[in-house]
Specification:
By secondary structure, the chain is α+β, with helices and mostly antiparallel strands. It is built from 18 helices and 19 strands. The protein has one domain (3-145, 278-490): 3-Layer(aba) Sandwich (Beta-lactamase), CATH 3.40.710. The model is unreliable at 1-82 (pLDDT under 50).
């Protein structure tokens, strides 16, 4: 039936390469302070979980641990059972063979009867000490920050502070409304259509990443002075270059969510991180200190950072970004497109709330708007599909099959047709950097998060493959579990 007992026996200790902590949806998660964090990691073995693994995925007994109920408030009682995700064989193998230090996997169905937060492996502190990965550890989100910024912007619409499709007031962010368009001939021309919030949220505003747009790279080289060593800059300075195309005429992945974050800051009158803490983290019960933007300064939060280790002493998120942390090293302020940090359990709560469309984050009406295709409504289907099939298409498609019909919703790529045995129509999905993947599928009633914690230098081929393994295996396991539930119900 895809469930496991949490009967526990003592194991070898907290440095086991693979650890499991399975928290029921209703349980209160633990909070760890800096001084006693290592003490909280005493581990216990779950023999029954290992026995449930298929031979190809079965792991040595001393590599499988689960947190003891004596160390976790309201943890699963020793004799209880719950639906649980098992580690895909390829991910388990990558960790046991030290190709991947750790992974945080999460999946849940709409009612919460199939739900698991599954941390695997260990993380390394700056001191070199290794600890089991926990759901309460702070993960660098990279572009998975964009979903949180989208939610913060849509809350402004719900509150009547902004609209999706009207012109953004020029006085709100003058640097944005003053931008011109760089033509393919290298000439600047005025915009023919004003930028809207919906354009910022769907990468149709003309705000493209320069590293994906050769003409913008050339323009910057010719028109911007070298960046001073050690200097930092905010969103408007970092992305001061022109638009790559007229607003609303194309799709290109870019900096729209960074500017959307600045719009939120202006209308709310406070930093983006504070808006998200008040309107996203607290309503969902995410522990204090569970949401940050680069740089993370608070001592207790730094103690929980996965991306603060001997290979990344500045906490830049190098392993997530693929090795280059310039985008964070030069950052000043909260970048809504890539600067966020959130606990794994916190991101899981965001996905669960959106899956249920429970009104905690955005109104139910806005929740339905999030999974409507914006691209088709703008008449950009051909342009969008050309980008999906282009040189960066594999990255843009975030795992969706090449040739399958996709669009873009408010928050990510959107499937427009069912994929047999996998994503349902209207599945919203995106990710972060090289190793972070999420999806939210209301039609099939399933959401998931795969945060692979790579080591440097990053094996991009491996993490790309394992992200896809996770996306597919969640659906396979869920189908097996549902079949077992149906068979049990008929007995």
């Amino acid at each position: 039936m895809g469930i496991f007992s949490t009967q526990r026996t003592r194991t070898s200790g907290p440095t086991s390469p693979i650890s499991y902590l399975a928290f029921p949806a209703h349980s209160k998660r633990p909070s760890y302070g800096t001084s006693n964090r290592t003490k909280q990691h005493k581990s216990f073995q779950s023999q029954s979980l290992s026995s449930k693994l298929q031979p190809s995925t079965r792991l040595p007994q001393n590599l499988i641990t689960t947190a003891a109920s004596s160390h976790i408030p309201n943890a699963i009682p020793p004799n209880s059972i719950m639906a649980a995700l098992k580690p895909p064989a390829a991910i388990a193998s990558a960790i046991t063979s030290s190709k991947l230090p750790a992974a945080l996997l999460f999946a849940a169905n709409t009612p919460g009867t199939f739900t698991t937060t599954l941390p695997l492996g260990t993380r390394t502190l700056l001191s070199g000490t290794t600890l089991p990965l926990l759901p309460t550890d702070l993960l660098y989100l990279a572009s998975a920050t964009k979903l949180l910024t989208t939610i913060a912007a849509l809350q402004c619409v719900d509150d009547g502070l902004l609209t999706l499709h009207d012109t953004l007031p020029p006085a709100l962010l003058p640097s944005l409304t003053a931008k011109q368009v760089l033509t393919d001939a290298g000439v600047l021309e005025p915009v023919t259509r004003p930028i809207t919030l919906a354009m910022l949220l769907t990468h149709t505003s003309g705000l493209a990443y320069d590293f994906l747009t050769p003409k913008l790279m050339a323009w910057r080289k010719e028109n911007e002075p070298p960046f001073p060593e050690g200097a930092t800059r905010g969103v408007e300075e970092a992305f001061s270059y022109p638009l790559a195309f007229q607003p609303g005429e194309r799709w290109m992945y870019g900096t729209g969510l960074d500017f959307a974050g600045r719009v939120v800051e202006e209308v709310r009158g406070k930093r983006l991180r504070d808006v998200m803490r008040e309107r996203i983290a607290r309503p969902l019960g995410v522990e204090e200190g569970g949401l940050h933007f680069f740089p993370v300064d608070e001592g207790e939060a730094r103690a929980k950072m996965v991306d603060l280790n001997p290979g990344d002493p500045e906490g830049l998120g190098l392993a997530v970004l693929g090795g280059d942390g310039t985008v964070n090293r030069r950052a000043k302020g909260d970048f809504g497109g890539h600067g966020g940090f959130l606990t794994g359990e916190g991101y899981a709560k965001v996905l669960q709330s959106l899956l249920r469309n429970d009104g905690q984050l955005v109104s139910e009406e806005m929740g339905r708007e999030m999974v409507k295709d914006v691209i088709g409504g703008m008449g950009l289907e051909d342009e969008f599909m050309a980008a999906m099939e282009g040189p960066a298409g594999d990255f843009f498609r975030v795992g969706t099959e090449k040739g399958s019909k996709v669009g873009h919703g408010l928050g990510g790529v959107l499937t427009l047709k069912d994929v047999e045995g996998w994503y349902g129509e209207g599945t919203l999905t995106w990710g972060g950097g090289m190793s972070f993947a999420w999806f939210m599928d209301r039609k099939n009633g399933l959401c998931g998060l795969g945060a692979l914690q790579a080591s440097l230098p990053v094996d991009i081929g491996l993490v790309t493959e394992l992200k896809q393994v996770f996306r597919k295996d969640v659906y396979r396991q869920y189908a097996v579990w549902k079949k077992g539930e149906e068979e049990t119900a008929t007995v």
